[in-house]
Amino acid sequence: MLSAIVFLPLLGALVAGFFGRLIGARMAEIVTTSLLGVAAVLSWMAFIRIGLNGGEPETIQVATWISSGLFEAGWTLRIDTLTVVMLVVVNTVSSLVHLYSIGYMAEDPHRPRFFAYLSLFTFAMLMLVTSDNFLQLFFGWEGVGLASYLLIGFWYQKPSANAAAIKAFVVNRVGDFGFALGIVGIFAVYGTISFDEVFAATPAMVGRTFEFAGTQFDVVTTLTFLLFIGAMGKSAQFGLHTWLPDAMEGPTPVSALIHAATMVTAGVFLVCRCSPMFEYAPDTLAFVTIIGAITAFFAATVGMFQNDIKRVIAYSTCSQLGYMFFAAGVSAYQAAMFHLFTHAFFKALLFLGAGSVIHAMHHEQDMRKMGGLYKLIPFTYAMMTIGTIALIGFGIPEIGGFAGFYSKDAILETAYAAGGVGSFGFVAGIVAALMTSFYSWRLAFMTFHGAPKWKHDAAHAHDDHAHVDAAHDEHHHHELHPHESPLTMTIPLAILALGAVAAGFVFYPYFIGDGNLETFWRGSIFVLHGEHVLHARHEVPEWVIWAPLTVTVLGFLIAAYYFLWYPKKAAALAAREGLLYNFLKNKWYIDELYNLIFVRPALWIGRKLWKLGDGWLIDGFGPDGVAARVKDLAGRAGRLQTGFIYHYAFAMLIGVAALLTWLMFGGAPK
Amino acid sequence: MDTLHADLLLTAPELLMAVGGMVVLMFGVFAAQKRPGIVNALAIVLFAATAFLIWRQPAGVLATAFAEAFVVNDFTRFAKLLVLLGAALSILISTRFFEREKIARFEFAPLMIFATLGMLMMISAGGLISLYVGLELQSLALYVLAAFNRDSVKATEAGLKYFVLGALSSCLLLYGSSLIYGFAGTVQFDGIQVVVDGGRNLGVLIGIVFILAGLAFKVSAVPFHMWTPDVYEGAPTPVTAFFAGAPKVAAIALLLRVLFDALPHAAADWRQIVTFISIASMALGAFAAIGQTNIKRLMAYSSIGNIGYALVGVAAGTEQGISSVLIFMAIYVVMTAGVFVCILAMRRVDGPTEKIEDLSGLMGSRPLLALCWIILLFSYVGLPPLPGFFGKYYVFGAAVEQGMWPLAVIGILTSVVAAYYYVRIVMLIINGAPPEKPFEPTMGGELRVVLGGTMLFSAAMIIVPGILVGWAGIAAAALIK
Q1: Which are the contacts of A622, defined by CB distance < 8 A and separation ≥ 6?
Q2: Among candidates A630, A641, A668 on the partner chain, residue whose Cβ is nearest the Cβ of B268
Q3: In a 10 Å sphere around its CB, with 0-12 CB exposed, 13-18 middle and 19+ buried, how is residue B339 labelled?
Q4: pTM for the predicted model, two decimal places
Q5: Residues A551-600: tens digit of each pLDDT
């Protein structure tokens, strides 16, 4: 049954991918979606059995993958609490996204390919979360990277989509390089890559060092640091985050599945899975905290002034991942996983809601060209509002609130209680929460409230967007009539909204309630100081508990002031293009900086190697040069043949003379 | 049995050839002036009879006649059969060509016979005198053959150039012979072998160089090759085919006889010379052919290059080397006959053409002929499993065996360069635009027979290469004694 969870999506991918033409787009949709639905139901059953009811974790041996000398890598499904949480997240969101895509992609001619990719992604993600050793983890890791690349570039006719796909792939290579180094290092130090053996041996490794380039490095710190580099790439943490906003070039369901709910959280999962190692590397944990806090703050600042509806949510995702990391950094892995869990619901909801808006607006994504949509698409409006409230973590302490409230407040309080770098995380988190509230409501107000701005310029509203197929183009010539989405799209919204409302208070006791390590996580997460870390949040001052609610309301008021009550002021502010506004709108100029430091020199080196190294040196002195010399020689040899008989005779006599001279003075070797 | 009787018996094939040649000539003069075809047929019959007599000579023994001026052993028998094959094929493919060019004359066949007789004499020469007699008999006939189309300025010029330069080479040869004689006091190879014992003597060195220069002229090795392109281009195509085949075999055989029978102890000296002219020939044959537009001129450079490869085996100076040269030459003769048949098939309604570019798009108009072209050209390239590969394989193998791997490497590198111009023709045949004026749709039956025979030979070389290799081994063993 557990194997079916993993392999049903693969089956769907193979069927849709290889027989998509044969069985038709409709069949491909039905097959993949229903297989995913079954997998999702099975996942929930496993979650209830192993997670909630305390069933025994299972290990299923599928096959021996590699056996070479000391190196052993099995293909094993490891199903413990951490895994079943991920299974539920992945398969729930994935099955809903499959269903949603039937409506969203209805006009696309390449639907079988799309669904095959979606299912393939799901399979790879499941391989990742069920892995029993680092190599299998890496397999899934690269598999989701591949699927992400394929799906971002799904509309391959669009140059921007191709560029975004390549960017995602290349930036992830940087992280993956660190990750791969980490795995190699683990094998070099531990002699094994199996989780159980590595984790068991870690306490003994504390204080051990190895030498590299004449310097001593602490083993566990270095290895965890390398693993975290990989996590940074996949989870778009500050420094390696640049690919995530661009990845929004992919179809919106893809953004919801891969770039919000599942793949980008793989980094968080990795850190939690390896908590038995990270716990013995306090320096790495501090680094994780700082990076997470910076990301939470940075992404929130940028998100405030984006005009593309999907980019706002993308930066929001980035920011929320930052929260998860600094929670993990202060050893509150349970809180990180809980936020991952709730975030999956409301962020997928927001993305799919945004998709519904985009669908209604015929692929318009610029919020400045929306407005007043709440009357036309009331259901989407309601769902988006629920998602927004969940995201900003609205809730009243002691009483209750939406999903985000439970997980985010737990993170902030724990960070405060942890002190040290945790305090930095707390401050960054509170400021980020203010901004989260602001940009979330800004999105809601710009999209659904105010005067409709799409009526004026409907004629040229979508010139710069994907013209997916001819049938779609016909839409563009009619006047724009925003309309509510079909059932296949609204049902997933409703289910996710349910999760966004309820996931918090229903699962709160399990994930981070008292005694969670013994009753719920049961060894799948290791915390050196046990319950104490998470428990400390109950002893923080009163103001810390009320701070999140305060800034959330404040953010709401600012957003309402500028975008609901006095929208002209916001426009005036934006028009002034102040220094800070431009700095934030241009994403801290990090893309430009990378372009200057990495991309252009790389292109320059590439061009030089091509023109000078390959063209001039290798071709010039290699094949081309030799060929040219042969031609020269051929021409000269041809000219020797003058046709004059005395030249011929002369050549013969010269030959005789030369041979004689050679023999007489060169001498014969005896 | 007295000596004369034995001598006459041993020289029976050559005697038959000489008498038969004169009979054919008389027959032509008095009975068949207007029907050269019959004369040609008679000549082929004569060749076949001669070949039969040679075939029946006792195997595995060394026999001499006329005071050791004439030598017969397995080596000479092998070489002679090869020469006869080449000559007979040339006559076979010539008849129709001459008739259609309206230059058919009955003198052609007798000239061919006497030239071939000269070659047989060369191969069997036991001393410097008989060597020179055979060589001149051959050469004089060849000069005339080169200018056989006497109304053509080109052919006349070719014949004259050949004659003047041939005379020069004969001078060199004679001068060298006289020096050797002056040193050794004998003209017989056996005697020379005893006297030239490897000690360094300037007179002997000069003699060797001059004799080698004279022989190198006959095999058209660089730098004594200059006549080759002009004569190949100027002579009528069947004559060119003849030049490219039988005389080369005879001259190589003579070279081997001189080197291994008369000068085996001076090997250290002549190996250097042979190595030099071998490298020079391979290189020039590869490079100079690239710019050619005339297929016969291209074949001239191709034959220069191929002689260079054969000389690699000679330079090896071992029994294995000799056998590799014989294998190489046998394959070369057959391949060359095949290619010249293909060249003869390059005939349009308004006459024959020799331009390479006219082969363009042949695959579309004459697929079977094009296939033969491609097989033959790839065989020249040395592409396995075609016969040309085996030829080069044995030759280079013999050199490597003697530690002369630089020579083999140079040979392979020049093969690569040479592959360029062969493969370019193949590409032209396959990819080229169809010609405006296509070739005649059919070719003569005798051409088809020869071409088919070539293809059969290729197949046989792939399936049972051992037969030829075995014969060549026996022949080589006879020479090395």
Answers
A1: none
A2: A668
A3: buried
A4: 0.65
A5: 999 999 999 888 888 888 877 877 777 778 888 778 778 888 888 888 88
A471 touches chain B (CB under 8 A): no
Fill in the DSSP letter of residue A455: T
Residues in B closer than 8 angstroms to A622, CB to CB, are: none
Distance from CA of B466 to the nearest CA of A (A): 36
Residues of A in contact with B230 (CB under 8 A): 641, 643
Does A639 contact chain B (CB < 8 Å)? Answer: no
Q: What is the pLDDT of residue A464?
A: 43
Q: Chain A to chain B, count of Cβ pairs less than 8 Å apart?
A: 86
A645 to chain B: closest CA residue: B161
Query: Per-residue pLDDT tens for B247-261?
Result: 999 999 999 999 999
Of A631, A641, A655, the CB nearest to B223: A655
Best mutation site among A659, A661, A662, A664 for testing chain B: the one with the most B CBs within 10 Å?
A659
